[in-house]
Structures are given as structure tokens and as C-alpha cells.
Amino acid sequence: MSNPQHLQYTKEHEWLTAAVDGVSTVGITKHAADALGDIVYVQLPEVGDTVTAGETCGELESTKSVSDLYSPVTGEVTEVNQDVLDDNALVNSAPFEAGWLFKVRVEATDELLSADEYDALTNPQG
Amino acid sequence: MSSLRLTALDALHRALGATMTDFAGWDMPLRYGSEREEHLAVRTKAGLFDLSHMGEITVTGPQAGEMLDHALVGFVSALGVLRARYTMICAEDGGILDDLIVYRLREDAFLVVANASNAQLVLDELIARAKGFDAVVTDDRDTYALIAVQGPEATAILAKTTDADLPGLKYYAILPAKVAGREVLLARTGYTGEDGFEIFCHPVDAEPVWQALTAAGEGHGLVPCGLSCRDTLRLEAGMPLYGHELSTDLTPFDAGLGRVVRFDKTTNDGAFVGRKALEQAAAAAESNPPKVLVGLVSEGKRVPRAEYTVVSTDGAPIGRITSGAPSPTLGKPIAMAYVDAAHAEPGTTVAVDVRGKHEPVQVVALPFYKRAR
């Protein structure tokens, strides 16, 4: 799996950057995007909303299924990715880069996984 | 451990990087890349499908036609040799056990193709219903692999691999032929709403046939296609899927497909399994229509999905969604649903309860998509 080493992960397949000036970026992993297939609808929290670690804060819908988006951290949303709202396919084509979902001012985090731990979770055969 | 059945093309799917899925006990390609692109390829160019999970059953013997007239709702014995028909097998109470395509291979031989999920049941029923007829029912599920090439370029692609008379092969006809030098049964049938072919071949020939078609498809935009786009293609074409639009709780009349029930059969003195119940269902559909199968189109982005409740504009439940998906061709969510007859008129605005929020949708006539001929 190509899960970048510099990110942290959740069991629900979100990723989180290290905070810069207290703000982290959140997205979903390639594993999650591949499992969903072509994403056709993205619902994100709004700027100013407070999201809570481990709770749903949005929704991703693909041809085949609907999946809740869980926030990996607690904090205030500072930015959402308008490009993704305009072009949902960015989540499929560049889940770790242009397909990021929102930025959050981190107040608290849940237990997060390292890239290696997340690799082990999503690819148990190694 | 998983004990999924693998098709003869399994290694090829994996080499192509397919995302696989458990479909009725078979490990089948769900998609190879983007299901939307696969869908659009079939609409505009061509797609190649492995459908080897489908259940082939052969019925042979002097009374094969009469036996199928008894066992199925269609008038099978009236079918011309090398022609095909869409039909159904029903229970005594009129409930749909499966929808089928029957091909007449010879005067005394028919190929029945059942859904993978129902193939064993259909086989058991046909064997039971053959009692008293001079006809033999054979399980041919392992005899055939099934490959489909579908889309406007299908004829041009297939022509490069066969000498068969493709212009002479009519829609819903079948022909013994050679494709890539292998003996096959070549049928002009499909489940996509496009022109195309289904190729029944021996499993050992599946890979060479697939590879020959892939090579022939170069320059024609042919792409391998998974079951995900097959589902959205058939939904756009308004074709029912067993387990969604069709079930044992519904008769063909409930599903708006009463035309497949042939009360005018002349064989077996017109008797067939389910006749009495189906006559009542036909009368009920005429006088007091139960729920009606309709198409729904949404102007929003959220997708009405199977089992979601359809509500009237004042919020009262009036039906349920049977299939729903974002339509790649229309660019908006579409669905099929059973709704109360009072709300079934095309143009009626209703709503779908999408996880607690009522999304307005409009009733439309089926199909959503019809190819230009």
C-alpha cells in the first residue's frame, strides 16, 4: 500500500497531517477511495463547525454505496476543499493530495495509527 | 475460508487489476478502473464482460418444448430454432422464481440461462417439472464460460474474430459459430441497452476468446467492464434485476411484465405452473392495480438507493426504491421504485427519504435511456 509515512490514520480510513500552526488537513485514504469506487457526492462540514473525534462529520457517496466521514480529531473547521465539492473525482484520483477534504484547528485527537499500523490493518496478509 | 467459485478468466481479471466482489457465491470483477468510464465506454464504444456466473441449463428431448411450456410462463415451443426469448419461471402462487433467457438451439434442444443466484433453484424446479415429459434437463453451468461484448462498436470488433454472419444474426437470435477459432454459441443478446453479443464458450477457450476480443478491440475503445457498470447500464435501460425489481413476492403482472405470461399457449391444453394464480394476478392488475414499477429522476446529487422509502410531497409513505444509482449517461441520480398507482403517472413529483431527508424526485416513464437505432 502507498500510505504516506508522514500522515496519521484512523481505523475508519481517514488520514491527518501533522498540525501546522495548530491546523491539520483531513482526507480519506486511497484504500477507502478504491473501495468506494467513483465518488459522486461529497458532504463536508462547514467552515466554523466544530467536529468531534470519532464522530461523523460528513458523507461520501459512490456509485455503489454511501459511507460516513468520521473526524479523526476534535476542533473547529477552518477550510473545506471547494475543488472536491466541485469535482468529486479528485478524491478518487488524488486522495492524499488534491483530494483532501477539510482543515481543522486541532483541540484533541483520538488514538491514531501510524502508516505502518494502517498498512497492517488494510492489508493483513502483509 | 472463502469458498468463492472462480471463473475461467480469474487469473486474467487479477492481472488486469480488477476489484473483485462476491456475487452469488462467485468471485467476479466489480470494476477494473472507474466504473463510470466503463459505463460510458459501453454507451459510446464497447465493453468486454465476464458473465460466467450465469447459470446455463440445457433441456433436450422430443418434448423439450412442451416441457418448458409447462414449466415456464412463456410459449417456448413456439420459438423458432436459433431464436431467443426473455421469460420467467413462477411458483404455483404466481411468484417469480427467476427471470430467464431461453435460446432454442435445435428443434429438440433449448438453452435456459438463469441468474447465478437462482440457478440451483431453477435447475431443481426444471428437473421436478420435467416429470412425465420426454425431456432431459442437464446442468451445464460448468460446460460454458460466458463472455459479452456490448456497445456500438461490438459488431466491428467481433467481426475481426469470426467469419459468422453478424449482420444476419438478429437481436435475440443465436448461432453456433467460431470465434478466435473456438467453437462457441454466439447470441445477439445483452443486459446493457446497447447492441452486442453474448458468447457461450468452453471454459478452456475463455481466455483465448477474451484475448482475441481484447486485441480486436484495440482502436475501437473496447475496455474490460465489471458488474458495477453492468448494473448501472441495465438500470438506465429500465431492465429488472432479480432480487430488486423481481422476487417471489411479486407476479410478472406486479412487475409490469405481464406480457411474458402467455395464456394463449396451445400445448398441454394451455396448462402451466402458476396459471391459475397468474390469471387472478392479471385480473387484479387490470381492475385494482397494486403498486406500479416506475422510474424516478432526481435533480439533486444524493442517490435514492434500494430499500429507501418513497414518500408523497406531504410526507406519506407511498412506496419503496428497488434499485438506484447515479446515472453516468443522464448525469443525475436515477432509481426504479414500486409506488402506489395514484402517484405513478410520469411527471408526478414525489420524494425519497434519503437517510432522513426528503429529496424531491420526478416520476418518469421507463426506460431512462434508449439507444438510437
TrEMBL record, chain A:
<dbReference type="GO" id="GO:0009249">
    <property type="term" value="P:protein lipoylation"/>
</dbReference>
<dbReference type="InterPro" id="IPR000089">
    <property type="entry name" value="Biotin_lipoyl"/>
</dbReference>
<dbReference type="InterPro" id="IPR033753">
    <property type="entry name" value="GCV_H/Fam206"/>
</dbReference>
<feature type="domain" description="Lipoyl-binding">
    <location>
        <begin position="23"/>
        <end position="105"/>
    </location>
</feature>
<dbReference type="InterPro" id="IPR011053">
    <property type="entry name" value="Single_hybrid_motif"/>
</dbReference>
<keyword id="KW-0450">Lipoyl</keyword>
<dbReference type="InterPro" id="IPR002930">
    <property type="entry name" value="GCV_H"/>
</dbReference>
<dbReference type="GO" id="GO:0019464">
    <property type="term" value="P:glycine decarboxylation via glycine cleavage system"/>
</dbReference>
<comment type="similarity">
    <text>Belongs to the GcvH family.</text>
</comment>
<dbReference type="InterPro" id="IPR003016">
    <property type="entry name" value="2-oxoA_DH_lipoyl-BS"/>
</dbReference>
<comment type="subunit">
    <text>The glycine cleavage system is composed of four proteins: P, T, L and H.</text>
</comment>
<protein>
    <recommendedName>
        <fullName>Glycine cleavage system H protein</fullName>
    </recommendedName>
</protein>
<comment type="function">
    <text>The glycine cleavage system catalyzes the degradation of glycine. The H protein shuttles the methylamine group of glycine from the P protein to the T protein.</text>
</comment>
<dbReference type="GO" id="GO:0005960">
    <property type="term" value="C:glycine cleavage complex"/>
</dbReference>
<dbReference type="Pfam" id="PF01597">
    <property type="entry name" value="GCV_H"/>
</dbReference>
<dbReference type="GO" id="GO:0005829">
    <property type="term" value="C:cytosol"/>
</dbReference>
<feature type="modified residue" description="N6-lipoyllysine">
    <location>
        <position position="64"/>
    </location>
</feature>
<dbReference type="InterPro" id="IPR017453">
    <property type="entry name" value="GCV_H_sub"/>
</dbReference>
From TrEMBL, chain B:
<dbReference type="GO" id="GO:0019464">
    <property type="term" value="P:glycine decarboxylation via glycine cleavage system"/>
</dbReference>
<keyword id="KW-0489">Methyltransferase</keyword>
<dbReference type="GO" id="GO:0004047">
    <property type="term" value="F:aminomethyltransferase activity"/>
</dbReference>
<comment type="similarity">
    <text>Belongs to the GcvT family.</text>
</comment>
<dbReference type="Pfam" id="PF01571">
    <property type="entry name" value="GCV_T"/>
</dbReference>
<comment type="subunit">
    <text>The glycine cleavage system is composed of four proteins: P, T, L and H.</text>
</comment>
<keyword id="KW-0032">Aminotransferase</keyword>
<dbReference type="InterPro" id="IPR006222">
    <property type="entry name" value="GCVT_N"/>
</dbReference>
<dbReference type="InterPro" id="IPR028896">
    <property type="entry name" value="GcvT/YgfZ/DmdA"/>
</dbReference>
<protein>
    <recommendedName>
        <fullName>Aminomethyltransferase</fullName>
        <ecNumber>2.1.2.10</ecNumber>
    </recommendedName>
</protein>
<keyword id="KW-0808">Transferase</keyword>
<dbReference type="InterPro" id="IPR013977">
    <property type="entry name" value="GcvT_C"/>
</dbReference>
<dbReference type="InterPro" id="IPR029043">
    <property type="entry name" value="GcvT/YgfZ_C"/>
</dbReference>
<dbReference type="InterPro" id="IPR006223">
    <property type="entry name" value="GcvT"/>
</dbReference>
<dbReference type="GO" id="GO:0005829">
    <property type="term" value="C:cytosol"/>
</dbReference>
<dbReference type="GO" id="GO:0005960">
    <property type="term" value="C:glycine cleavage complex"/>
</dbReference>
<dbReference type="Pfam" id="PF08669">
    <property type="entry name" value="GCV_T_C"/>
</dbReference>
<dbReference type="GO" id="GO:0008168">
    <property type="term" value="F:methyltransferase activity"/>
</dbReference>
<feature type="domain" description="Aminomethyltransferase C-terminal">
    <location>
        <begin position="291"/>
        <end position="370"/>
    </location>
</feature>
<comment type="function">
    <text>The glycine cleavage system catalyzes the degradation of glycine.</text>
</comment>
<dbReference type="GO" id="GO:0008483">
    <property type="term" value="F:transaminase activity"/>
</dbReference>
<dbReference type="InterPro" id="IPR027266">
    <property type="entry name" value="TrmE/GcvT-like"/>
</dbReference>
